[in-house]
Amino acid sequence: MDELERILWQELGTKEDYLKEYGDTPIGYLVRRIVGVNREVVNEAFSEFLTAERLNLNQMRFVRLIVDYIAANGNIDDNKVLTEEPFRSVGSITGLFRDDMGTAKRIMEVVAEIKRNSEVTA
Asked: What gap in Å lies between CA 44 and CA 46, rounded to an integer?
């Protein structure tokens, strides 16, 4: 991260330039937004759900869509995205996990942990 800051703030511009363009967006968060996250890392974060035999087919699809989205976009910035396509075609998280809201809560905790990680490591 130090090397990236040096490049951004000394070779490509200044810290003030960065702040003007991106505000207080952490560098790690910005990098993830641009390049996404390694799919294997995201799969590992959600492994407890992807390997759980207790999930039905639609629940598993929903979790895989979350993995795909985070791998491509770096984070889920707004949970509202989970109510839009392609998630909507599988179902809402509350509908899919209505009999197991603990699992739904844990999925959302993992989503939040991934986002927090990109903000902290910056």
From this structure: 5
- Give the Å distances, CA to CA, from 44 to 16, 47, 97, 110: 37, 5, 21, 11
- Using alpha carbons, list the distances in angstroms from residue 76 to 35, 96, 100: 14, 19, 22
Instruction: Give, as one character, the DSSP assignment of residue 13.
Output: -
Single-letter residue type at 20? K
Query: CB under 8 Å to 89, separation ≥6 — which residues?
Result: none
Q: What is the pTM of this model?
A: 0.80
Q: How far is CA 66 from CA 7, 27, 97, in A?
A: 32, 23, 15
Distance CA 121, CA 4 (A): 12
Q: For residue range 46-62, what is the model confidence (pLDDT) as tens digits?
A: 999 988 687 999 999 99
